[in-house]
Amino acid sequence: MAEYADIIVDISLGKLDRTFQYRIPPALTGQIRPGVLVEVPFGNGSRRIRGYVVEVTGRPEIEESRIKEILAVVDRSVPIESQLIALAAWMRENFGGTMNQALKAVLPVKVKTAGKEKRLIYLLLDPAEGRELLRRLEQKHQTARARLLGALLEQSPLPYETVTGKLNVTAAVIRAMAEKQVIRVETVRTYRNPLDRMKKQEKSVELNPVQRQIADDIIARWRTGDTKPSLIHGITGSGKTEVYMELIAAAVRRGKQAIVLIPEIALTFQTVMRFYSRFGERVSILNSRMSAGERYDQFERAKNGELDVMIGPRSALFSPFPDLGFIIIDEEHEAAYKSETAPCYHARETAVARAGMCGAMVVLGSATPSVESYARAKSGIYRLYEMGQRISDRPLPTVYTVDLREELRRGNRSILSGRLRELMEDRLQRKEQIMLFLNRRGMAGFVSCRSCGHVVKCPHCDVSLNLHNNGRLICHYCGYSMPMVKRCPECGSPYVGGFKAGTQKIEQYIRQQFPQAGVLRMDLDTTRQKDSYEQILSAFANREADILIGTQMIVKGHDFPNVTLVGVLAADLSLHISDYRAAERTFQLLTQAAGRAGRGKRPGEVVIQTYQPEHYAITAAANQDYQTFYGHEMLFREMMHYPPVWNLLVIHIASSQETLANQAADVLQYRTAAMIRQKDPGHGGRPDGARIQVIGPADAAVAKVSDTFRKILYVKAADYQDLVWIKDGLDPELREDALLKKVSVQFDFNPMNGF
Ligand code: ADP
Ligand code: ZN
Ligand code: ZN
């Protein structure tokens, strides 16, 4: 029984955790939900003030008799804050965490900004009244007032400084006219514009028939209120970005705004420039290098109607646009769209929720859609659009797969296969550029056999063991350890080792092998400094180097027309990360890497070096064949009950005391199993066909971080709402149970990084 409402009375103070509890009078039951603007009595004098409902509960927090009652619901125009608070409540419900954490994610905390204050003087009379008054002032020889009024009749508002300066009107006269309600003085803030110094490049393209048809179809549906999310599956270079811009233009023509989410790493100068060229001053960006003040300024500009388009990573989703038309999510498969701190929301699901609240449409785009999104598109939850051709029919690159085991058999133990070396020499001679990509994701310290491809795994956990400096192989799931093997346990070959080559080692090797070539390296080490990322990319774009070596950073979204060869040095590295998405990640990275070759007029070639040339993620990527990959991957997900076929909830338990963490994990396991038994008596959570299963507890992948012990519990369910139900059932226990209160517990729904 929901009887009380927690109310926040002043968002602008940024004290989002300061809420006050009020009773909901019977007459208002049903109208009170998160986001609703209400009037409440406040303070000792019970002054009537406004506040937002953030949460509705059945528990009084203070003595019942001291709780005042909500006076009324303010139901005039719904401020954007209402919508964002309602969204926070939705995020809390569907992804866990506290309401306060959710509010902090959606409402930017107010910070002192460097925005400039500017005073403006507005005329409050209509022109006829104004002219009449002007005549009377002139008659009475009130010349200063007449001067001001005359100027305002020509132009309103006028800057305060112009009036006191050029018009020579004193502050006293201004005050007197303001008191008579003839004019109004208003202080406005002007905010920093991060794109201030950009120059527009006029270059508009005419959409080709495929782009035209997709844009027209989406716009037509959007205009009639058919706002089912759309997924554009278009290979790299097929012209998706041009379609996005066409949609945005349609929204802007109708006075609406758009949010464009882009993974931070792809938020390059080139991309921003394209939007700026089309929408000019009305575009702004957000990125993680901006200060809190700069970010706040951009949110204020969005709210004040200064902007039509906001481009940025995940958090740009909460731009307070009053009348949103589209939310576009480019590269929708990226893991960066999932928050790793509470609330662990996914921007895609949250975008759909926000769009639903304001009648906007979500448009997703990717060359390699996530298996989740593609499955939804196939089942009709999203509308699917395919773009299978590159612009002006530039051919896709030719891909060669090289079996590294075969290379070893031929006596080649270097990191370059014969084929890749040959092609590199050819490109250097022709003065074309080369990208070498080291697919290095997560923990890549595993040990494998270079003769047969066998990877040394933990006998208990089926994940790869990691080679540590002390010469031992260690399991990061269960702690099992063993001495480093001298021979392959599978085939007896002595060629076992860790794949130790980092980008730095590779750079050294390449410089030594190709002394005449200019080499650049891009990885976490070389991009630590501000702007170094852009510097490396622009140096390469300006052809100051022949070879660019890098990690996954280099495969995202950049357009280098002179690159005609891409080498993937060890394609399997990401196949061995302990994550059910390992194959999907590998496919995505390889497809993107291949997409870097042949962006210009000359066709490109790609060499994929691998120990597992027969793996479906690798063969499908080599053939640029999304459908085949998707088919295989869905079979695997179905067999293993992984998302999107089922849903996964990870419950993280952390404590500085190991015994507490262990006990809490056991208690949560027990409670969860009990809930499942109650709902599904036939199975009781056993993994034998039940619709909900609980697995664990186990140590987290990194079981101990800075003296905090971490345990995890998995709950799998066919139906996402069953997982929400589990979370809702456990939530009160987390607050009230003596043991559980002592540990920190976090829910992560359908996690994107490891599990
Ligand atoms: P995607 O977003 O799918 O990778 P882009 O929209 O970036 O594709 O298009 C790839 C390249 O082709 C860009 O340089 C873009 O300016 C150009 N392009 C896109 N559409 C057209 C078009 N209709 N006519 C000419 N050039 C186009
Ligand atoms: Zn072997
Ligand atoms: Zn293990």
Structure, explained:
The chain contains 21 helices and 31 strands. The protein has 755 residues and is α/β, with parallel strands linked by helices. The protein has a seven-stranded parallel β-sheet with strand order 12-13-11-14-15-10-16, with helices on both faces. The two termini are 36 Å apart. About 1% of the residues have low confidence. Bound molecules: adenosine-5'-diphosphate and zinc ion (2 copies). The site of adenosine-5'-diphosphate (ADP) has 14 residues, from helix 8. Adenosine-5'-diphosphate binds next to helix 8.
Give a short account of the largest sheet. Answer: 7 strands, parallel
**Unique ligands:** adenosine-5'-diphosphate, zinc ion
Task: Give the oligomeric state of the chains in this entry, treating copies of one chain as homo and distinct chains as hetero.
Answer: single chain
Rounded average pLDDT:
86
SS summary, helix count? 21
Structural class call reads alpha/beta
| Order of neighbouring strands in the sheet with most strands | 12-13-11-14-15-10-16
N→C terminal distance:
36 Å
**Uncertain stretches of 5 or more adjacent residues:** 684-688
**What amount of the residues lies in strands?**
15-25%
Question: What level of helicity do the residues show?
Answer: 25-40%
Radius of gyration: 30 Å
C-alpha geometry: globular
Strand runs, count: 31
Features:
755 residues; alpha/beta; 7-stranded parallel β-sheet; 6-stranded mixed β-sheet; 22% strand; globular; binds adenosine-5'-diphosphate; binds zinc ion
